[in-house]
Amino acid sequence: MRVLVTADYRTLSQTAAELIVKAVRGKAGLVLGLPTGRTPVGMYDELVRLHRNQSHDFSRIRTFNLDEYAGLHAGDPNSFDTYMHRHFFDHVNIPPENTHIPHEVANYEAAIRDAGGIDLLIVGIGTNGHIAFNEPGSSFTSRTRTVNLAPETVANATKQFGNNAVPKQAITMGIGTILESRHILLLASGTAKADIVRRALHGPITESVPASALQQHPNVIAILDEEAKSRG
Ligand code: GLP
């Protein structure tokens, strides 16, 4: 795994966006795996800026999101679908039919296969080591499925949901699905991630730390800001 350490969140976001744009330019019809959460917001802002200021073209890419809360309809303000429109899809020129969000398990893996597999997947990390919504204990060969969310994950999401209850389940790509991507970018920012980042990158490869599965992949770049790297 290559580890890039950036001075701050802004540089992390720019670095991630530049790598994505380079990949998009390098292959017509690039297939991206896309994350949600707080971490990639700056990366999407930068991609939108590159589209507006430098006319960067996204019209031929295909996208597959990593996960979605179970039971939330696309337009729910807390759905990842809404997040993607707010931060990215509504501001660039990706044809809507080229974007995919896993509202249902059925056909998601087949759609990824039909697109030729994921070329570049971007993923964040939960404070308990989850990637997408693959919570600790998830099999490294898991595929897209419905999962129960860990109490820590539900607790971390309560602020965002305000008065609404956080769903207890989600649909997520499996770790096996993620590991089949040709290239992976792992993003982590802030001191709250420092401990789990150290365990994921340098600790034992174990299903109790789902992100440690990335150590087995030949083409991973981890982009960490100084704070996320602060514990080694
Ligand atoms: C959520 C998402 C993950 C994300 C994680 C960390 O649970 N399902 O894909 O990586 O949270 O989110 P944040 O970037 O907000 O810390």
Explain what the structure shows.
The chain is of the alpha/beta class and 232 residues long. The chain has one domain: 3-Layer(aba) Sandwich (Rossmann fold). The chain is built from seven helices and ten strands. The strands form two sheets. The chain has a seven-stranded parallel beta sheet, with helices on one face. A three-stranded antiparallel beta sheet has the order 4-8-7, with no helix packed on it. Helix 1 packs across helix 2. The radius of gyration is 16 Å and the shape is globular. The model has no long low-confidence stretch (mean pLDDT 97). It binds 2-amino-2-deoxy-6-O-phosphono-alpha-D-glucopyranose. 2-amino-2-deoxy-6-O-phosphono-alpha-D-glucopyranose binds next to loops.
Q: How do the strands and helices of this protein lay out in sequence?
A:
Elements: E1 2-6, H1 9-26, E2 31-34, H2 41-54, E3 62-65, E4 67-69, H3 80-87, E5 99-100, H4 108-114, E6 120-123, E7 145-148, H5 151-161, E8 169-172, H6 175-179, E9 183-188, H7 194-202, E10 220-225
Parallel strand pairs: 1-10, 2-3, 2-6, 3-5, 6-9, 9-10
Antiparallel strand pairs: 4-8, 7-8
2-amino-2-deoxy-6-O-phosphono-alpha-D-glucopyranose binds next to loops.
Mass-distribution shape = globular
The helical percent reads: 25-40%
Strand order of the largest sheet: 1-10-9-6-2-3-5
What order do the helices and strands follow?
Answer: EHEHEEHEHEEHEHEHE
Low-confidence spans: pLDDT under 50, at least 5 residues?
Answer: none
Task: Give me the CATH fold name.
Answer: Rossmann fold
Cα gyration radius (Å): 16 Å
CA(first)-CA(last) distance: 15 Å
Could you give a short account of the major beta sheet?
7 strands, parallel
Mean pLDDT: 97
The secondary-structure class comes to alpha/beta
Question: Count of DSSP E strands?
Answer: 10
How many domains, as an integer? 1
Query: Beta-strand level of the residues, as a percent range?
Result: 15-25%
Return the CATH architecture: 3-Layer(aba) Sandwich
Ligands and ions found = 2-amino-2-deoxy-6-O-phosphono-alpha-D-glucopyranose
